[in-house]
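Job type: complex structure
Entries:
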Amino acid sequence: MPGRTLIRMLTFASFVTPSFLGATAWIFLAAPHSGWLNRAWVALTGAPRGFLNIYTLAGAVCVIALYSYPYAFAFVSSALELVPSEMERSAELLGANWLRTTWRITLPLVRPAIIAGALMSFLEAIAEFGTPAFLLIPARQQVITTQLYLFFQYPSRPNLAAAYALPLLAVTVSLFLLQQRLLRRGRFTTVTGKGGVRVPFRLGPWRWPVFAICMAPPIFSLILPYTALLATSLSHAWGRGPVPGNLTFAWYHWALVENQGARRAIAHSVSYAAAAATIATALAVCSAYAVSRRLLPGARILGYLAMAPFVVPGIVLAIGFFAAYARPPLVLYGTAWMLIVAFATRFLPIAYAGSESALRSLDLELENAARTLGSGRLRTFGKITIPLLRRSILANWLMVFIPSLRELSSAVFLFTPATAVITNVIFDLSDEGNFEPLSALGIIMMALTFGLVAVAYRLFGGAVFGQRQRA
Amino acid sequence: MSAAAPILIARRRPDLSPGVWTVAAAILLFMVVVPLAWILVASVHSDQDNRLTPANYVEAFTKSIYLQPIRNSLILAALSAAPTCRAAP
């Protein structure tokens, strides 16, 4: 198929795009009256009004599905990589065409991965806060996460919120366990000792239709939304559309120079994300080391703890932080640490998984050599292990920094006006309906993100992104 | 005799490392276990007078204005997951 690399890159780009920005962009495209797609429909067909309304449950479903399909993509494509071409070849030799081969051979082989990917999407969707908050709060149609948010509005009911959040946690934990079981059990043995020659599938005339199908999600999750965001960020008023006289750079000037709140939020975002990434990476390396070398009694429990935030929805974690650290003995609420520690906790599993697999590939010999020469455990760790892990440490740091920069769900609960980050400002602007400055801020945030992704890609190549399946 | 000398020179320092791993474990407790445990504690206390009570659970799972969001969440998640069962290129 043509453009395989392009599709992988686009899928990764929609993975990095936070769905709340996607949701905002889809407001411009499909708001009931003023949405551009609706107006184009009216202009083309002469219908009294457009048929799209993004402020509905169906609208939210579409947006969430667009931004969660990269998870399924990651699962399925790594499973497909293990399917040996011989099996497909044998089917072909027996006279099956490619459609039949795919249906009878390839799909059954990757079925467990497809189910696991769908469960992952379900987990993501039920824990998602941004999209429902942007699309469904205006429609007064709540989901669990937005209802939790409303519990924190005046008059706030934090304890009721805690009771309401626990079943959500139970659902995510049990789904995760189910998914792990599926991935372990339902696996066919496809990796054999006999070489796996990878012969690309010949699609013949079917090439272009298949390419078109594969391009559909990126068009709706990236190309249209980013065009809409960019156009809005450069307009005086987005409803007037891209006409002369509507063009302005004022919103970028507003965000980067004029408005102190926006400028401070950008500085906060970058510095908190950097601090969170540092804490998470350091903690991940230390605990992964302690676990892999069994340096503490109950070291395995430490590993489970470090991976636990993976299944805790951001909102639930935030409610926990609020319950634990908003009142004495330890008050973090109101300080930058509240957000930093929350971000570090939320993305700790990414750093831990990275450190653990890097440590596993290190032979003990090098450490033992240093220890034989009389070096203590700590000195060996600092002088031998850490330098050997340098690349992985840097990669993990970036992999925590990137999602921390755009984290919304925990920031919304834990910020105070003095510690607001970019996502808080974006959330407030959306609430007020100030979409033009919102788009400018969103574009700035994504420019930072994609800049960092490019740096990471240059430094480490594509492998870095392979190890990561969740933000 | 002389072959053993380097080993004698390398003086063993006190091993501080258990302290470091313990601190890491303590920070993990503080970041992961304490917040989750506090949700549990908070959920059984009243918002008004901080009394120990199951009332929050009763309120959250009997009132229809709180049940509708749960239904919506399940619909949303199920529908969002469905189209992702799509084979990759």
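Summary: Residues 79 and 85 of chain B are 11 Å apart (CA to CA). Chain B touches chain A through 61 residues (CB under 8 Å).
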